[in-house]
Amino acid sequence: MATLQKIRTRAGLLVAIVIGVSLAAFILGDMLQGGSSMFQRNRLEVGVIDGESIQYPDFQTEVEELGEIFKQNYGTSQLDENTWAQVRDQAWQQKISEIVMGDTYKDLGIDVSSDELFDMLQGANIHPIVQQIFRNPETGQFDRGSVVRFLKNLETGAVAQDQRNYWLTLENQIVDEREQSKYANMVGKGLYVTSQEAENTLQANSKTVNFDYISLPHSTVSDDEITITEKDLKDYYDAHQEDYKQDQSRRIEYITYPVKPSEADYTDAQNWIEDIKSDFEATEDNVQFVDANSDVSFENVWYKESGLPENIATWIFEEDAEVGDVFGPYQDGDAFKLAKLHKSEMMPDSVEARHILLQVNTQAELVAAQALADSLKTMIANGADFAQLARDNSVDQGSAINGGELGWFQRGQMVKPFEDAAFNNAKGEVTVVTSQFGIHVVQTTNRGVLTPQVQVAYLVRNVVPSTKTYQDVYAKASEFAGTHTTFEAFETAVADQKLTKRVANLGENDRQIAGLENARTLVRAAYEAEENTILMTTQGSPIFELGDNFVIAVLSQVTEEGVAPLEDVKPRVELAVTKEKKAEALKEKASAAISENSDLSAIATALDTEVKSANGINFNSFSIPGVGLEPAVIGTVTSLDVDQISEPIAGNNGVFVVMVTSESQNPVGSVSDEQTRLAQTLNYRAAQQAFPAHRDAVEIVDKRSKFY
Question: What value, to the nearest 5°, has the Cα angle with vertex 218 and ends 216 and 221?
Fold first, then answer.
């Protein structure tokens, strides 16, 4: 079991998450009613990857298996919806990789043999993940014997099913990683850098230049100086369609009716707290009373005066409240409170302590660690060297090397059980306590200055919307929805009533909308509706209840995947064409000035601008100081001779005329070394880009939004 815990906390696997069985049954039950088998198959299709149909039952089975492993990995029995969504996406990505690369690996004969897997699990070349999991906690070194024992137990059936499933998933991931590595290496080996390529790179890096330049910003040409025709726009659009590709999206406009506590809700909360005050004053068990009646549980925390709210600190320390006294009721934001002085003592404001930490992962280890802790406590009481015991036994290596010393600390700096033991101990006293980190043998070695400290029992009544408040707000939303049933009516009413309209652009698999809880239902509705219509819930209502908001929304725009129509991107195209036209005008103006002048200063004067300078630029420079990203300018200046004036250069921010004023040669390596460096870069790119290249080459249709 200790091994499984290490796997859970250290492996860091990316796994998929399960959705509820009840939801699966609901979807399947709905889809399997009637129709031909082909129709049923189409309705159950989660997606299509390279022509292979992915059916919901098969995909969901994989998700459930990985979801169970994910629960084990994090030691939880419940998964929140956001986590489910993230891991379902991981399951989908794994499915893509499996299908896209499976045939490629098979065709190339890429495989991981049983001998190779053995070598990675317990042979001479242990995989890093296995090394990390089976690390000896005392030495920090890989423990081969632990691996062998675990695998033997796996073979004999002595390992629990959840551990078996987890380990098999880990093995599969190690195999997948090795196959990916083999393929990337194969691609890398097929890439070659010629000596000419290496020589060109060395030449590009060998020269650094300083240069003077003239810049003519696009803004110096007014819009009315250029003429743009519809043909100009169409020609540019046709030539640059790659720039106008778009993903599928939906644009919604919506109004919200927030459910907030009413005046009556505040009055009810205040009356409740006033009615219970006498009972709170009379009770002798403050902790039990608070836990049974308050909206906030009792906090077992000691406070100095500076750590309390101002009104409570004044009441206790300046008005000399006594234990058992009650302050309030008083309002604190959206809550009404009573404060009762629970305890008051003189306590140290800080302590100095040391400890021995014993690790606990299983029930068996807990029993053994508890016995060892009691033994260590007895040995310390009999005069044993605490420091040596800490070095020999503590798994907290950070403090063990210093004999378990933790130095001075104040309240709130340590986990609660440890803090309580350290502050409650007398000087030199030893206590054994358990925390989430294990079992601590704690000795307080010094105590700070005694200061008055208190515990306060707070009885809290939060002000929340009542059922009537919900009904009243819903009635307002219902009145609006019932009288404005079309897109046009919605838009007109929002404007006439001066309502706050919000806008959201949604992807098909989005799950969140800023400011709204559980917004997935609204996203799905947007993808099931027609443009310029009111969105409806699955029950046919125009009112979505999302957290503490009732929402009414319309679908105002549908954008399909592909190249955006010219009309949709016309402002962007006009901006680009305007930039080109202005650059042409500036280049013509600059060319005329160059033809009449041979000196850069004279050219600048003719163009009513000034000469500026830039230094330390080479072919690989990313930008020009004071100018920005101008690759065309950088490429030009690194190829010019000294004192040579360039032709006008159309850049990102305007038109430039440049002249190199000086250049210097940089030391460069050999051609063979440069070939090696470039080859290593290509190999790295192969590892990073091989799978994306295959994935982008096939058609992938994602229909998960129909199910999740």
Answer: 95
Q: List for the chain the helix, strand, coil content (%; round to 5).
A: 50, 20, 30
Query: Are the C-beta atoms of 679 and 193 separated by less than 8 Å?
Result: yes
Same domain, 533 and 649: no
- pLDDT, position 6: 38
- Residues, the chain: 708
Angle between helices 230-239 and 566-596 (to 10 degrees): 100
Task: Quote the crossing angle between the two packed helices 161-189 and 144-156, to the nearest 10°.
Answer: 120
Query: CA 204, CA 668: separation in Å to the nearest integer?
Result: 10
Q: Structural domain of residue 634, as residue ranges?
A: 207-244+567-665
Token pair of 120, please?
């990675």
Number of domains comprising the chain: 5
Over the Cα atoms of the chain, what is R_g?
Answer: 36
Q: Are the C-beta atoms of 266 and 273 separated by less than 8 Å?
A: no
Q: Is residue 175 part of a domain?
A: yes
pLDDT, tens digit, for every residue of 620-671?
Answer: 888 999 889 999 999 999 989 999 999 999 999 999 999 999 999 888 788 8
Spatial distance between the Cα atoms of 166 and 174, rounded to a whole number of angstroms: 13
pLDDT by residue (tens digit) across 195-208?
998 888 888 888 89
Tell me, yes or no, whether 157 and 30 share the same domain: yes
CATH number assigned to the domain comprising residue 438: 3.10.50.40
pTM of the model: 0.63
Task: Indicate the residue among 326, 347, 368 that finishes a domain.
Answer: 347
pLDDT of residue 259: 96
- Residues 113 and 11 occupy one common structural domain: yes
**What's phi and psi for 326, nearest 5 deg?**
-120, 135
Token pair belonging to 607:
């163009």
